[in-house]
Amino acid sequence: MNSIDQLRQQQTRRAVLEGSTLGLGAMALSQLSAPASAAEKPRHPNGGLQGLPHSPPRVRRVIYLFQSGGPAQMDLFDYKPGLHRRFGEEVPTSIYPDERKTTMTSGQSSFPVAPSALRFRQYGDSGTWLSEPQKHLSEVVDDICVIRSMYTEAINHDPAATLFQTGSVIAGRPSMGAWVSYGLGSENANLPAFVALTSNGTGKQGQPLYDRLWGAGFLPGRFQGVKFRGQGDPILDLYNPQGMTREQRRRTLNSLQKLNAQQAGRFNDPAIATRIAQYELAFRMQMSVPELIDVQSEPKNVLDMYGPEATQVGKYAYNCLLARRLAERGVRFIQLYHRGWDAHGNAPRGVASQCRDTDQPTAALLKDLKQRGMLEDTLVVWGGEFGRTIYCQGKLTRTNYGRDHHPNCFTYWMAGGGVRGGMTYGATDEYSVNVVENPVHVHDLQATILHQLGINHERLTYRFQGRHYRLTDVHGNVVNDVLS
Predict the structure, then answer these.
(1) Which 3 state secondary structure label does DSSP give 146?
(2) Cα separation of 107 and 121, whole Å?
(3) Residue 213 needs a FRET pair 20 to 30 A away by CA distance; which of 160, 248, 324, 336 works?
(4) Domain map of the chain by residue range?
(5) Beta-strand pair 333-339/120-123
(6) Cβ-based burial of 188 (10 A; exposed 0-12, middle 13-18, buried ≥19)
(7) What's the pTM value of the predicted model, to 2 decimals?
(8) Which segment of 85-89, 100-104, 144-148, 379-383 scores lowest on mean pLDDT?
């Protein structure tokens, strides 16, 4: 047999083996694996899993206002007037043991009490306590439920933020928005189901925000969040290059889709299916996004309500207004990340500065949703990755102090569909160091958010590397006390 004939026979055998592996073998494998994995479950036309929602949803969408850096609970919501007479006293080690201090302050020789330098008042019919920089939030305080008893295990920024966004301190898990997109699909075929927006506090860059915070992890890539950039085009390569018409783009994508489909049929690689879906979504977004981001089309009274930065791309006010526009167009999960709350020094000034950026737009978002009848089917969540210490980091004066990271207790608030507005839930000890009433863990908050969307957090799972994963890992309970 000559070498040409031998090569031809080898290629034939290889082709048979490839065909059997990706043909009959793949069919058998799919039959064996289907009951064990949610990935092969039938899906609705909108991309969501059949069988979801598990229960009638109270809301259609979530807007999560994540305050990166760790807002100081005692400077915002957790009023502790009794601490003023303890100014400068040492925080007892029985209240704050050494093992819960970070390396940034564990070497200090003194841990003096630093009461809040900000004044507090009660607002609304509910009498909710707020500090003075939150004058706009005070106007809608009866619509929010303040949870003073949040706690977490993570004490450093990156693992703490990763835990809130993905349910694990270990990088690589799907983000909450990706889980929601995977389970419920999209309400608008021309926009992503999950969008992420970022902004910086005035004069501050803040902690890094990695793409994995809105990533899909081990879920198919098409469920990851689409990040809208804070400058220039909201999405890179969204617009056609000069000289290319929409019809030309369509023909190009059709040809590319045929090539990708051939590869998908040959290799059965889910990444190829994701690529096809993303190209198609990007093509549709070319028509929908320009209208979406045209916030100048909003009435003047709406722009004024959000504040002077409402039309400045990349600012928190702009992102809040864009969040409302995304919500009314059917985007299910909208994640805003605002950096700058890390207050290791000059905390009173830092809190006031952050509130100047965020207070008015946050309150405007609630007002805007409410006047459009959207707050009743939208869940708005506000909070960061942990709180701050009551003891001072660095030099303590009556008007200046720093605060270190504190995971034992901090404050979140929620508003919208199915949430009991005008309520304060949970309590901390006299030093705002430990939860003493109605503790709420990170996974409890996540379970509650999913519950409001009609998802049972224990039943939305995905099989990966031999086990079923879920957002809330192996625990978490819906906080029914804060729900109406």
Answers:
(1) strand
(2) 36
(3) 324
(4) 66-234+307-482, 236-292
(5) unpaired
(6) middle
(7) 0.88
(8) 100-104
**Rounded Cα–Cα distance for residues 138 and 129 (Å):** 9
- Kindly state the percentage of the chain with pLDDT values over 90: 75
- Which CATH architecture best describes the domain 66-234+307-482? 3-Layer(aba) Sandwich (3.40)
Alpha helix (H) residue ranges in 98-189: 157-166, 176-184
Q: Check residue 205 and report its DSSP letter.
A: -
- 3-state SS, 55-80, equals CCCCCCEEEEEEEECCCCHHHCCCCC
Q: What is the DSSP letter of 147?
A: E
Distance CA 52, CA 312 (A): 38
- Nearest alpha-carbon partner for 77 in 418, 448, 382, 460: 382
CA count, 13 A, side-chain hemisphere, 124: 21
pLDDT at 41: 67
What would the two tokens of residue 98 be? 């050494």
CA separation for the pair 444, 150 (Å, rounded): 9
Annotate 406-454 with DSSP letters as a single string. E-S-EEEEEEETTB-TTEEE-EE-TTS-SEEES-EEHHHHHHHHHHHTT
Using CA atoms, how far apart are residues 273 and 279, in angstroms rounded to an integer?
Answer: 10
pLDDT digit string (tens) for 76-97? Answer: 999 999 999 999 999 999 999 9
Question: How many alpha carbons fall within 13 Å on the CB side of residue 16?
Answer: 5
Q: List Cα–Cα distances, 227 to 191, 420, 446, in angstroms.
A: 12, 31, 21
Helix, coil or strand: residue 149: strand
Q: Are 427 and 166 in contact (CB under 8 A)?
A: no
pLDDT digits (tens, 9 = 90+) for 147-203: 999 999 999 999 999 999 999 999 999 999 999 999 999 999 899 999 999 999 987
CA distances to 146, 168, 404, 442 from 386, in Å = 15, 15, 10, 10
CA angle 150, 132, 120 (to 5 degrees): 65
Six-digit token string for 200: 């910086």
Q: Encoding tokens for residue 376?
A: 């009743």
Residue reference for tokens 């977004």: 285
- Candidates 157, 181, 151, 182; CA nearest to 169 is 157
204, 347 contact by CB (below 8 A): no
Pairing of β 128-131 and β 120-123: antiparallel
Three-state secondary structure call for residue 181: helix
Can you count the helices (H) and strands (E) in the chain?
10, 17
The residue among 91 and 240 whose pLDDT is bigger is 91
Q: Report how far residue 171's alpha carbon sits from residue 154's, in angstroms, rounded to the nearest whole number.
A: 13
